[in-house]
C-alpha cells in the first residue's frame, strides 16, 4: 500500500507539496509557498515531523514549488534534497525573493544535502523508486513517478505537453495521477494564446512592459514576440544558460531564441522605460525588478501586459482589476485537451488535481470523470490492492 499526503496546492494555488510513503520510507515532493498568504497558510501543511522524511525532491525552482525549502530546514530537515542542475542554479534567486529572510540567513540549503540528477533518471530511496522526466514547463523542470508496494503514483508538478520551447517526456501508466490542473477546463491551445500575445505586443512595439518569471515563460514570450525588445539586464545570463542547457529546448528553437536574446537591449531599474517591449521578472510584480518597473509604468501610463497567475492582492492583480493592465494567458500549464490526453495516456487512473480552486476542479470533472474533486490540502489517500480512498485528515 502507498499513502499519499496532500500537503499544499489542493483546492488552492500555491505551496505545492505531496508526500508519498510505503509505511517504511517517506519522500516529499516539492516544498512551495503561497504568494499572498500569511502565517501558516504560506507554507505546506506537513503530514509528519521532518525527521520522518527520508528524502525531498524539488521539481523546479518556481516559488510555489521551492519557496518553503529554508522553512523546512529550520524545522530540522537534514536529509538529501534532489533536484536538477538547472533547478539548483536558479534556486538562490527564488529563495532570495520568497524565503523568509531570517530562514535564508540561518538555514540556507547546505551543499552536502544537494543531490543532482538529470531528467529521465531514476532515484531509489529505501524501497521506493522515483523516476523522472522533463516536464516541458521550464529548463530542468521534471515530473515524478513514485513506485513502491506494487503501485505507482505520478506527480506531474507543473507540466506543459505542447510547449513551443521545452520538450516533455511522456508520463508512465500509473494507479494515481496527481495532475497540474492550473487552468481547469480552459480549452484554448498555447499556439493560439501565443498568437494573441504576439499581436498585442506588435501593437505596442514602441513601448510596453511584460512582467514574467525568470525561467519558463520568459522564453515562451521571446518565442512569441517578433519585434525588437529589451530585457532587464540581470536576466541575460540566466536566459542564455536556459537556451543552451543540453536537450532543454527544442533543437529548432535554440538558434532563434539565441538570436533574439542577443539582439535584445539591456535595461536596468531606474533607467527610463524603453521605446520597445520590455521583459522584467517576476510575473506578478511581487518581487524582483518587475515591482519597481510596474510602479514606473503605472505612473507613466505605459502599456502593461500580464500573462500568468496573479494572486489576489498582488500588484499585477490590482493593475488588471483597475483596468491599468491587460491580461492574456501564456499557457505554461496544460489546457483541457492536453490534460485529457495525459490522463488517457496514463491509463485513465484516478486523478487528483493540484494548483486550482474548487470551481475549476468541478468544471474539469465534467470532462475527466475520474477526477476526485473533493481532494484538499490536508487530505490523505491510500492506494491498496483494489481501491484509492481517503484515509484521514492530518491537519
Automatic annotation (TrEMBL):
Concerning SMART domains, the annotation shows: Lactamase_B
**Where are the bilayer-spanning segments?**
none
Query: Where does the Metallo-beta-lactamase domain lie?
Result: 14-217
Signal peptide start and end residues? none
The Gene Ontology terms for molecular function here are: RNA endonuclease activity
Q: What InterPro entries does this protein map onto?
A: MBL, Metallo-B-lactamas, RibonucZ/Hydroxyglut_hydro
Instruction: Give the protein's recorded name.
Output: Metallo-beta-lactamase domain-containing protein
Please give the organism: Nitratireductor aquibiodomus
Amino acid at each position: 500500500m502507498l499513502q499519499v499526503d496532500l500537503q499544499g496546492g489542493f483546492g488552492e494555488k500555491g505551496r505545492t507539496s505531496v508526500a508519498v510513503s510505503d509505511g517504511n520510507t517517506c519522500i516529499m515532493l516539492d516544498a512551495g509557498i503561497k504568494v499572498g498568504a500569511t502565517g501558516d497558510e504560506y507554507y505546506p501543511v506537513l503530514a509528519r515531523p521532518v525527521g520522518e522524511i527520508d528524502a525531498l525532491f524539488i521539481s523546479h525552482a518556481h516559488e510555489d514549488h521551492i519557496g518553503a525549502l529554508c522553512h523546512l530546514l529550520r524545522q530540522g530537515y537534514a536529509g538529501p534534497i534532489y533536484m536538477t542542475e538547472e533547478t539548483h542554479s536558479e534556486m538562490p534567486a527564488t529563495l532570495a525573493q520568497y524565503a523568509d529572510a531570517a530562514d535564508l540567513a540561518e538555514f540556507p540549503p547546505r551543499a552536502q544535502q544537494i543531490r543532482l540528477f538529470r531528467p529521465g533518471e531514476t532515484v531509489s530511496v529505501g524501497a521506493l523508486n522515483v523516476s523522472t522526466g522533463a516536464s516541458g514547463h521550464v529548463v530542468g523542470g521534471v515530473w515524478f513517478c513514485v513506485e513502491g508496494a506494487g503501485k505507482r503514483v505520478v506527480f506531474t508538478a507543473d507540466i506543459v505537453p505542447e510547449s513551443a520551447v521545452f520538450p516533455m517526456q511522456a508520463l508512465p501508466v500509473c494507479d494515481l495521477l496527481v495532475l497540474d490542473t492550473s487552468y481547469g477546463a480552459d480549452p484554448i491551445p498555447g499556439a493560439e494564446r501565443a498568437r494573441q500575445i504576439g499581436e498585442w505586443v506588435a501593437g505596442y512595439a514602441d513601448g510596453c512592459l511584460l512582467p514574467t518569471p525568470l525561467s519558463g515563460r520568459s522564453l515562451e514570450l521571446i518565442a512569441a514576440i517578433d519585434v525588437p525588445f529589451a530585457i532587464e539586464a540581470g536576466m541575460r545570463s540566466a536566459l542564455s544558460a536556459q537556451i543552451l542547457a543540453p536537450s532543454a529546448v527544442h533543437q529548432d528553437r535554440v538558434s532563434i531564441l539565441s538570436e533574439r536574446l542577443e539582439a535584445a537591449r539591456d535595461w536596468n531599474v531606474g533607467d527610463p522605460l524603453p521605446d520597445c517591449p520590455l521583459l522584467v521578472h517576476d510575473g506578478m510584480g511581487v518581487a524582483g525588478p518587475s515591482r519597481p518597473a510596474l510602479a514606473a509604468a503605472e505612473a507613466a501610463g505605459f502599456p502593461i501586459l500580464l500573462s500568468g497567475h496573479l494572486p489576489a492582492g498582488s500588484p499585477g492583480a490590482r493593475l488588471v482589476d483597475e483596468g491599468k493592465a491587460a491580461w492574456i494567458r501564456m499557457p505554461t500549464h496544460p489546457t483541457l485537451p492536453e490534460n485529457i490526453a495525459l490522463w488517457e495516456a496514463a491509463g485513465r487512473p484516478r486523478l487528483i488535481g493540484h494548483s486550482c480552486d474548487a470551481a475549476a476542479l468541478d468544471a474539469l470533472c465534467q470532462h475527466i470523470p475520474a477526477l476526485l474533486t473533493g481532494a484538499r490540502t490536508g487530505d490523505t489517500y491510500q492506494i491498496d490492492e483494489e481501491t484509492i480512498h481517503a484515509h484521514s485528515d492530518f491537519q
